[in-house]
Write a structure and sequence with these properties.
There is one protein chain. This protein has 222 residues and is an alpha+beta fold. Helices cover 12% and strands 26% of the residues. It contains 4 helices and 9 strands. The chain has helices spanning 18-21, 25-32, 128-134, 147-154, and strands spanning 36-40, 54-66, 92-97, 101-107, 115-126, 170-173, 182-185, 199-202, 218-220. Strands 1, 2, 3, 4, 5, 6, 7, 8 and 9 form a 9-stranded antiparallel sheet that branches. The radius of gyration is 16 Å and the shape is globular. The structure holds a DNA duplex (13 and 13 nucleotides).
Amino acid sequence: MTSFLGMKGDKVPGTLPASFYERESTAVAKDLLGKILLVRSQVRRPLESPRALVTAGRIVETEAYRGSDPASHSCRGRTPRSALLFGPPGLAYVYFIYGNYEMLNCVAEPDGLAGAVLIRAVSPLFGESLMERRRGGLPRTRWTDGPGKLCRAMGVKMAHKGQTFAGPALYVTDDGFRPDKAMTSPRVGISAGRSAYWRYFIAGDPFVSRAPEDSQARPQKW
DNA sequence: AACACGATCTACT
DNA sequence: GTAGATCGTGTTG
């Protein structure tokens, strides 16, 4: 897993083809469950090893946003902030909210159609001491069990906006892991679009954010 | 130029 | 369970 970190010119095993992201964002959201997200935050100190400031985790919770869906930033058309949503898939759409938190999304849908997948929770796999430090020594299960928390823990910043998920700052990879049971529910923290079951999560995973929406969750077929 | 608010989280009752 | 933090963005004047 760490063989390619910082190794210029190395192949990146398991990164996903553009065709993966170039589908309906609901399909991409479901299929991102179980994939690995790796983040390299900017190296600040010259002597730091390439591995430093790298964290990785398995994606366990996602949400889809699409087109004119009233809960999506794309709903009122293209704005300076949301322009990326209308562009080519496979890029990171990062935004800042509540004066405090970054949110990390994968742009989905073909070029010209708006869509994205919000990464809501991951299960830590690598760089755990860094995550723990960034999360102020909180218990492990509270490092990455929410979209703002995981960006804190993994060092996702606005500077990642527009980066691809094929590196060198962000990676989504497939290591062959397949979750056995997935659930779907309404999306968390929105008032519009409550009828769309566009939140996906791995059933029983301790890093899934606990939400009121869980009471309405139902099994998701693959 | 001013304003209202948000795909959240934490602290505190 | 709920209030407060805190600021970029989009909308309105």
